[in-house]
Amino acid sequence: MLIDELENARKAAGWSQETLAERAGLSRMTVQRTESGQIDPRLSTLLEMARALGLELMPVPAALRPQLEDFVRSGGRVLGQPAGVGAPPSITQTLERT
């Protein structure tokens, strides 16, 4: 799933595998083999690919993933928090202002 996200980000940026490899300091073969599933890449390889794409990898304990996904889907609002004009700003809204 992570590798698919990196590949999608590369394509969305309009980059070739070679461009990503150059910007990440990797060989084109490493990017190609990683995206195709031919190798199990090192974490450092994934971190460099993400960095080059302007992304940051964040390890999340599996037990917390459902709550984190719910939080992100809610736009940073605490679940059960009322929506609308009178609602306090979400965390994401607060961060956007800074």
Structure commentary:
It is a single chain. The protein is mostly helical and 98 residues long. It folds into two domains: 2-52, lambda repressor-like DNA-binding domains (434 Repressor (Amino-terminal Domain), Orthogonal Bundle), CATH 1.10.260.40; 62-97, no CATH class. It is 55% helix and 0% strand. It is built from six helices and no strands. It has helices at 2-12, 17-24, 28-36, 43-52, 65-73, 91-97. Helix 2 crosses helix 3 (28-36) and helix 2 packs across helix 4. The two termini are 31 Å apart. The mean pLDDT is 87.
**CATH homology superfamily name of the largest domain:** lambda repressor-like DNA-binding domains
Architecture of the largest domain, CATH level 2? Orthogonal Bundle
Overall 3D shape: elongated
In the CATH hierarchy, what is the class of the largest domain? Mainly Alpha
**Largest sheet features:** none
The gyration radius over C-alpha positions equals 17 Å
Mean pLDDT: 87
Strand content: under 5%
Structural class: mainly alpha
Distance between the termini: 31 Å
The total count of strands amounts to 0
Short description:
The protein is mainly α and 98 residues long. 55% of the residues lie in helices and 0% in strands. It folds into two domains: 2-52, 434 Repressor (Amino-terminal Domain) (Orthogonal Bundle), CATH 1.10.260; 62-97, no CATH class.
